[in-house]
Amino acid sequence: MNHSEFTKHINHYYPLSEETLKDLLNICTEEYYHKNDLLLESGSMARYYYFIKSGLIGYYTVDEQGDNIYKIFFEENSFVASTAAIIKNEPSDFTIIALEDCTVIQYPAKAYRELLEKHHDLALFHMYYLEKNWVVKKEPLEVSLKYETAKKRYLQLIENKSLYNRLKQHHIASYLGITPTQLSRIKKELY
């Protein structure tokens, strides 16, 4: 099982010792999920962290009307988890779904948390990862959701061509917080 991209992305945040890396890889398994398989269902305990080797994953909640509201999408070489649910040891408010066939490196949250206590370098990786992805990246996204129009957010989304081209129109509309009809109107205005 080739974990080179996985270890490369970890070392991008903070370099791990050989011993730490060996312990981490010992708790990892490579798993395959078919399109539309759930990695985690809302209301369930979040038991794993994931690293996407191939495929596309969506992260959504369900509104009062029963519609899926996509919060974020993850492409290859991304780490995915219901982090808040893991930290609080509570059922997840979010569903994590394979939007394409996916291969992931999966590692159990409990064993990983034990390694965080054992290995200082792994704890530093985790801290730097959370700072960059859950604070630095998340804050502008939340401001964008609150203050920017769907049209402006659509324009930002299409800047990431590789992601945009992989998404279905209903995923895009859900992410923007609008109906597919409203999305069609925005596209007509722009093109």
From TrEMBL:
<protein>
    <submittedName>
        <fullName>Cyclic nucleotide-binding protein</fullName>
    </submittedName>
</protein>
<dbReference type="InterPro" id="IPR014710">
    <property type="entry name" value="RmlC-like_jellyroll"/>
</dbReference>
<dbReference type="InterPro" id="IPR000595">
    <property type="entry name" value="cNMP-bd_dom"/>
</dbReference>
<feature type="domain" description="Cyclic nucleotide-binding">
    <location>
        <begin position="12"/>
        <end position="116"/>
    </location>
</feature>
<dbReference type="InterPro" id="IPR018490">
    <property type="entry name" value="cNMP-bd_dom_sf"/>
</dbReference>
<dbReference type="Pfam" id="PF00027">
    <property type="entry name" value="cNMP_binding"/>
</dbReference>
